[in-house]
UniProtKB/TrEMBL annotation:
GO molecular function, a single term: N-hydroxyarylamine O-acetyltransferase activity
UniProt keyword annotation of Disulfide bond present: no
Organism, as annotated: Marinomonas spartinae
Cited Gene3D superfamilies: Arylamine N-acetyltransferase (3.30.2140.10), Cysteine proteinases (2.40.128.150)
Source domain of life: Bacteria
InterPro entries: Arylamine_N-AcTrfase, Papain-like_cys_pep_sf
The protein's name in its UniProt record: N-hydroxyarylamine O-acetyltransferase
Known EC number: 2.3.1.118
Gene coding for it: nhoA
Keyword tags: Acyltransferase, Transferase
Similarity remark: Belongs to the arylamine N-acetyltransferase family.
Amino acid sequence: MSFPLALNQYLVRLDLTVPDSLSLDFVCELQRRHVAEFSFNNLAVVLGDDISLDLEDVSEKIVTRGLGAYCFEHNKLTFELLKALGYDVQLKLARVLNNNLERAVGRTHRVTLLTLNNEMYLIDTGFGGNGPLSPLSLSTQQEQQSGFEHYRMLPLEGGEWDVQIVKDGDYFTLYRFDFAHYSEADCSVGHFYSHRHPNAVFVNNLMVTNKELDKTRSLLNSTFNIKTESGEQNRKVGSPRVLQSILAEHFQIKLELVVAEHLFERFVQSELDDSQTRS
């Protein structure tokens, strides 16, 4: 089977062999390896880079250069591979709620719906620390385990669905999507807001995540967190060199010290100052 070079490189980087027939096991392994291998981060956003959604550019950034990315890039790469392999996939957009169910927000998250053997699944390789490591079935409202976390797909009136994660014994709604038709042009609108609007979350915070079956590492501004099934450990990022070291050691992102100093001043120092004031 012949693919664009960008998709061939994607398969090679994840050490995946394409099966002879369409397989849910392959999709599961693709999602797990993708999320573990490629960090979710908004470094390009906060550094003011131009972020292209062309497939070749996305592959160059994520696969070749290992820089990680955010949802519009991660899920585009996954979608295009599954589509090229012959899977029945649909592009969908979602509203990120983070449990504020009355929150008025635009559709700034991209996901993929897969239909296979008359079953439908949500595929998401680009939601960061709370995102699933495996496909989530829409055919059940029971909890579904993915890694050490549990999720629920909840249908709503009007054809919308909530994607929920179990937190502290209760359901926490991550985002809401519907079955409307969306195109790459719709993604461009959400992408433009997400990386250019002055009020966008990704413009105003430093966010980096890496997720494996038994461990999630995340950096949010001044706090570095490691989460496992047994609990969480937090530490404060005390200096630009510590920030530089965390990015290199835990996320395989190597930055010049001057860049780490810039990010520290913009996103870390103010939080540290605020926490010291409150204490």
